[in-house]
Request: fold
Amino acid sequence: MASLINDILDFSKLKNQHLHLRLRAVDIYSVTNVVLALSKPLIKGKPLTLINDIPQDIPLINADEDRLEQILNNLVGNAIKFTPEGKVKIAAKEEGSYVALSVTDTGIGIPEEKIGNVFNSFEQLDSSITREFEGTGLGLAITKQLVELHGGEINVISQPGKGSTFTIKMPTSDQKREAVSRQDLENQKAISQIKILNNSTIRDDTEIKTELDGNRLKVMIVDDEPVNREVLENQLNMAGYLVTSVTGGMEALRLLEQGESYDLMILDIMMPGMSGYEVCEKLREKYLPSELPVVMLTAKNLEPDLVEGFNAGANDYLTKPFSKNELLSRVKTHLNLHRIHQATGKFVPYEFLRSIGRDTITEVELGDHAKKEVTVLFSDIRDYTSLSEQMSPEENFNFVNAFVGRMGPVIHDYNGFVNQYLGDAIMALFPDEIEKALEAAIHMLNECQDYNAQRIQDGWLPLSIGIGLHAGPLVMGIIGDKKRNDPATISDTVNIASWMEGLTKHYGANLIISESVYSHLSHNNKKNIRFLGKVKVKGKQQAIGAYECFAGDKEEICLLKNKSIELFNEGLNVFFNKEFSQAGALFDRVIKQNPNDLVAQYFRKQAAKYTLQGIPENWTGIEKLDTK
Reply:
């Protein structure tokens, strides 16, 4: 705002010929160093180099040093704005009684039909809400008038796609370097260094503070205007928040896609390429307003603008110009609400709320429900009763907490969420991709192996887990009475997933998936999987295909199971054809290759039993189970 007001005031003074220059002998090399140092924050996020190519012995020019700095700031700022990558170079050479100072960039260039208008007042290439480049259109107009007020001239040559060169000719000073007091020149250099030092010190302190404290609440600023970002960063950093600032919506969304997390976003509306409204709508596809609060920062405060912002998913508005106290009060309020929602989210997951069409826990009502297609994961610790008998109640509690504390984040990493912790068991839901659920289960088994290495080192016995997966429809909703509500998932899908986990004990496998999961896997994800046959669980009329996935077994066991998979499948085929003697022989060969193949041991035992005792009446090969 201050910069804009100063531009308007300068424009008015120049128009009315009320602006007076304080001319003196000026060293343009020192002034250029200052301008480039102060311009460095403008290139944040761009692969751009700023170059001072002016000879240090260039003749002094007759100029108002402050106005010369203003001219260069405008030209360099303009070059940076329109140069996505490459370099911005300032050079100078003596031309008679003038010094020709050029600012060259490798930017987008100026269309031929626009070159004649670049020095016009309020001239912009684009003034839409998603205009590619910000600005008021006053900078170059003021620059031209300031140059001419010095008795100089300015021109531009440009080629679209290759960049532009602005050249100003300023009169040389009557005073030669040798005649000017060395002290005067040293003072100019000292003042330049102080300006540069002040700027860099402020930024360095901010970065150090941010790096040292990793536990503060995290705020993201999304604004294409460098001055706005600088002001917001300073105020929020001083208030104790950990701040990340980006120049546009695409960069903000990319950081979130990469797994970065933030407690609040301050989002400008008028930005290049992607407006704040569009960014907010994209955010709301993944994050509830209670998960990631968004405060819109804008000068557009008319009722239709506010309505559009709230419809896009904004939590609040902050109108420019804003006061520091208002900014911090609103940020604090929304972060406090966010922390409350975070706390409730530990008891009722955000994913559950989203599934029943609610944004916050306070909106939930008894009877809210929704039907979803999901993958259900059940995991359980084997022989937990025997393990728990060796521990005190407190040790038991700490053990279960340590175990589920490792497994919960794995589930979350694969876009699932824990619906219930059932003591040593976990029930998780994956609303999106079935393959993500399988990858999570494999990762959980790998995590269990790492956990066992630590347990053995600490003198504890290793543990093993069984995991079952099944995909199908279920109803997620709120059950209970007027005084007590619970989130619940009700469906046969949950029951079958539990049975799949129970089958791991029956067969001696670590991970068993149902036919509904297997049929949706890609070809690559069907590797490391063996068919086990069909099972009919208690209360079910329909038999369900069951498959062992051994990708999460120890590496050496996984390799041996892959090596013997054709032999295993051949043995299974003759087993279901009631050729039990031949099946037993084939499973014997599998076990010789891999003595730790418990599934092969199970089928060899069954084959030997039917060979000796005969086939049960009405035997179809379908395994009937009455208990998990």
